[in-house]
Recover the amino acids of this structure.
């Protein structure tokens, strides 16, 4: 079926707004055909995931758009990039990779994107509002924007995202439409002790489990505490988006489109009801680890998604507790935190930064361990508090991974081996 075009769509297709805009709208029109959308719609904010350096083709595409006069027409933030732009040498990144990464960054900034370089844009700058139509890339950010903020976006993959940002147009379909945001399966938390739900690791573990249960459906969670923090929901979103491509979930009494069960399911019955009990969470936790207790540790990775200021504060408290007992970072362990310039600027205005760097924490900004070649091939065992990092590390970094909460990560970094004494609800 032909896609209905607006006057501005026709102008863009007719090259009246330049070659880059014509390329972008043509790609979007093709996407409309593939998705079965019959018309296009406006979006008012973009977030670009394609600014990572996955291939020379991606670099060529960005540079070609920029050279052809491509400019974003809506406020557009950038996801993490391929490089810590200021300190890449310190992290062992090679000159050739860095040169390409810097060219890629320049192309996107030249197109008018805001150089936020973070995968947690919702915690720093230009947070979308409820009901706002946006075009975002980056799976955790998409899930957070849809679920926690109630903004509306489909999962815009690499290079479609910049096309949407240049034109301000997307196919009218999917999660942009209210009728497609209806909950489909009900996940009931049953007999989970409040102490379990207070542990930050709970949210990553639950997210991992939800992703594996959702199977393409929109899940609705019943039984979450009413006041999870932004960081806890960030962890849930990242894990669910990784294990199950979840782009939207509802949580009764927590997320804005789910004040009641009836609202979450648009007045209809769930297609399926699944109970989640402690053993299910323990199984999910165990699925996130390929390295067991007592294994020698090489690297701790925190900040996936990017660390917030409050997470830096929590980490400082944990490290202070160790150093006050005369403990220090084990000499065989590297401790890396990935974050954004925005959170780091706040960190610099606190007295936490000295505590972290004195302990040996290396903070890398603008990028992440999966997108910049900073993890040495000798790294055999990684520990993380992130469901997303734990999910991808074995395949992407070729290392065994141990999942644990932040306190476990700090304790293990001190001991030099994986120990999860702090996870008091672990199976034992
Ligand atoms: Fe962000 Fe990289 Fe994790 S993009 S969510 S730190 S995998």
């Amino acid at each position: 079926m032909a896609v209905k075009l607006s006057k501005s769509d026709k102008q863009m297709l007719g090259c009246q707004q330049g070659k880059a805009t014509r390329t972008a709208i043509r790609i979007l029109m093709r996407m409309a055909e593939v998705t079965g959308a019959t018309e296009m719609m406006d979006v008012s904010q973009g977030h670009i995931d394609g600014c990572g350096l996955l291939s020379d083709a991606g670099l060529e595409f960005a540079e070609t758009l920029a050279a052809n006069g491509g400019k974003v027409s809506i406020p557009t933030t950038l996801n993490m990039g391929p490089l810590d732009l200021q300190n890449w040498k310190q992290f062992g990144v090679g000159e050739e990779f860095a040169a390409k990464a810097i060219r890629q960054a320049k192309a996107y900034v030249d197109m008018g994107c805001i150089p936020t370089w973070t995968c947690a844009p919702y915690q720093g700058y230009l947070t979308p509002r409820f009901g706002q139509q946006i075009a975002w890339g980056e799976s955790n950010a998409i899930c957070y924007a849809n679920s926690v903020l109630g903004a509306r976006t489909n999962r815009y993959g690499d290079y479609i995202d910049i096309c949407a940002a240049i034109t301000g147009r997307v196919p009218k379909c999917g999660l942009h439409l209210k009728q497609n945001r209806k909950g489909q399966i009900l996940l009931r938390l049953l007999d989970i002790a409040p102490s379990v739900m207070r542990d930050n690791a709970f949210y990553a573990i639950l997210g991992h489990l939800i992703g594996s249960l959702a199977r393409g459906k929109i899940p609705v969670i019943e039984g979450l505490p009413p006041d999870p923090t932004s960081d806890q929901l960030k962890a849930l979103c990242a894990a669910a988006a990784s294990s199950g491509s979840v782009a939207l979930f509802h949580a009764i009494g927590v997320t804005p489109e789910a004040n009641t069960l009836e609202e979450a399911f648009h007045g209809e019955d769930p297609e399926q009801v699944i109970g989640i009990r402690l053993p299910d969470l323990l199984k999910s936790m165990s699925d996130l680890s390929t390295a067991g207790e007592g294994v020698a540790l090489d690297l701790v990775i925190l900040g996936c998604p990017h660390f917030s200021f409050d997470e830096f504060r929590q980490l400082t408290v944990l490290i202070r507790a160790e150093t006050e007992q005369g403990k220090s970072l084990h000499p065989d362990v590297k401790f890396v935190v990935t974050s954004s310039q925005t959170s780091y600027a706040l960190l610099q205005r606190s007295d936490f930064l000295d505590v972290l760097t004195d302990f040996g924490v290396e903070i890398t900004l603008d990028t992440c361990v999966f997108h910049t070649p900073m993890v040495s091939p000798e790294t055999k065992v990684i520990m993380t508090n992130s469901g997303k990092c734990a999910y991808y590390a074995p395949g992407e970094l070729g290392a065994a991974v141990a999942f644990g909460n932040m306190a476990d990560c700090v304790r293990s970094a001190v001991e030099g081996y994986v120990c999860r004494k702090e996870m008091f609800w672990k199976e034992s």
In short: The longest helix spans residues 19-35.
